[in-house]
Design goal:
127 residues, alpha+beta, 5 strands, flat
């Protein structure tokens, strides 16, 4: 694959920003340092990075996708108030409990799990 400075910038941004950014957030934050960058270029590179397994696209149920540089098998908590996304790592013990719920003959190879509610910051805000 041909080297691309813009692709490298986008990948590094996602790696450094653990907040699961949207394409628009990436574009807005990188544009001042890369005036030639277009939103279409960001989308094109995000799709390519997903295809080659460098990042993953998260369909959190919002109107826009978010992107995660951690491609390991993990879940996500989405705050329905501020829309923050937090990684959740499910260990082998919890996987065994889930398999126990499923019954004999099931095995878990991978999962995509999204939990929804309010993050700790939003839970503390008086309604």
């Amino acid at each position: 694959m041909k080297y691309s400075k813009q692709r490298e910038m986008i990948l590094n941004y996602i790696i450094e920003n653990k907040n699961h950014p949207t394409a628009e957030q990436i574009y807005t934050d990188l544009k001042p340092d890369a005036p030639a960058l277009s939103l279409a270029t960001v989308y094109r590179n995000l799709n390519l990075l997903c295809q080659i397994g460098e990042i993953q696209k998260l369909d959190t149920g919002e109107t826009v996708d978010r992107f995660d540089a951690d491609t390991s098998n993990h879940a996500h908590f989405i705050c329905e108030n501020c829309h923050s996304v937090t990684d959740i790592f499910i260990d082998a013990v919890n996987q065994k409990m889930i398999i126990g719920e499923l019954g004999n003959g099931f095995s878990i190879d991978r999962h995509k799990l999204f939990l929804y509610g309010k993050c700790s910051c939003c839970s503390q805000v008086k309604q």
